[in-house]
Write a structure and sequence with these properties.
The chain has 16 helices and 17 strands. It is α/β, with parallel strands linked by helices. The strands form four sheets. It has an eight-stranded mixed sheet, with helices on one face. The chain has a four-stranded antiparallel sheet with strand order 13-14-15-16, with helices on one face. Strand 15 and strand 16 form a beta hairpin. The chain is globular.
Length: 525
Amino acid sequence: MKRLKGVVFGMLLLLLNAGCLTAKNRPNIVLLYIDDLAWYGTPVPMNSAMANSFMPVLQMPNVQKLADAGMKFGHAYGSPMCAPARVCLQTGQSAARSGFTVYLGKANDPYYDYNKEYKYFPLVANVSDLEIDKEAFTIAKALNPMGYVSAHIGKWHMRGDPGEQGYEVHDGATDNNPGNTLTWGLKKGEPAPKRLPKDMSDPKLMFSITDKAIGFMQDQVKKGNPFYLQISHYAMHAGRECLDKTRQKYVKHPLVQAWYKKNNKDPETISRKDDPANWLAMGEDLDGRIGAILDKLKELGIENNTYIIVTADNGYRHKEVLLTPELTQPLHAAKWWAWEGGIKVPMIVKGPGIKPGSVFKGNVVNYDFLPTFVEWAGGDPKKLQNIDGVSLADYMAGKVPDKVFLNRNLYFHYPHYRTSVPHSAVISGSFKVVHFYERPDIQMLFDLSEDPGEVNNIAKQNPDTYQELYKDMMSYFNEVGARFPKVNPDYDREIYRKDPKTIRERLKWGPFEGKRTLDPDELKY
């Protein structure tokens, strides 16, 4: 189903107010977009009251430097998986509005997913739009009339053509594959390397991506153009890659050594996907590339007129937090789920007018970036139409958010099967409703301020709060034309419950009443 998801480009150009800024003094914007990085996946605590809101073993001094010099967001949200997150970011729209809710194969129907794999599942789930609309009003298109030159370097993962979306410099419609440099290009049947080669020089293309980004910045400074630069790293996605010298540092770490011993693993023979030293080294290598960007901004003399954002597309579940014996997983579930573990992400912003070491406690979401960038560039975000995000510019400059902002609804919609099941969520302030379409009879409400791990379902104790948020969510989904699954007349309970993914995760992380059973890696919660 092809739907118009943005305002026509020409119409919006007439509405944008370029203000009194000239090209020379408009700020530059650099977004460092990290793949598959959990809320707690950096050494920067996202919640000072939670010891497991950061990764103590990992060293990322440049990310720490950004946090010290900028603003930290303790309640930032992405999407359940990477492709919809990228569309949300580009368009300022929720996934429910854009229709791009998952990145899966070819649609055989404009609305329902009749994939044979799910033939006997409880629901007939939905398909998703297959690519970002050519008509979409993206960040690059919004900034272009204000004199900006835009580049998207690295992972695109929205199909379509970045050039048609306003990006003058880009790597094409890339997906996950180019970043898996050890397997990209292998012939069918050719085995993937089980361990990292000693001579790896460009893990996850981190170094070549950074070099290209630096070249772009140099060109724009030379030409006197303000620029938007999105560096979409393939790290920290699965397919762990890192420099050997960095890995050796973590191999020798006492906590990693203790893990090898406990799990009877030899660092010289362990598979690369299982080795915690590989993940930690990948993070530190990535931090070094972030540092290279920061150094170049300073060298070019534009550091003080550049906004720098570090954030991630979706949440994740990193086992490396457990290397520190007293720590447990802080959030429920993982990528592919609208539980906090799947959608909560780290976010740090440094730039003109942002107080060093500041912390923003309100909820923010990936579709807030477009209006924020428009305001930074001198445009009027209030004139943007058909978007769900709001500008964060004033809040980053010190404005205290009011109750309207703090209690606004953030929407997450995933009407699909894969690892998870069709479900949706809405967050308002500290309250969150999660709705599973297989079990509409189980009402679920959580108070994230008291229960960040979503352990206690308090819907029965707070029926009015639940009903208000649930009705708001469904009303919004209907308003924006979201797709909904339907009951499957061919449902076979036995077949469904024997499916490996159902056994492993669909049932474990599905709906519940009262208090849920903790996972083994949460037992100290």
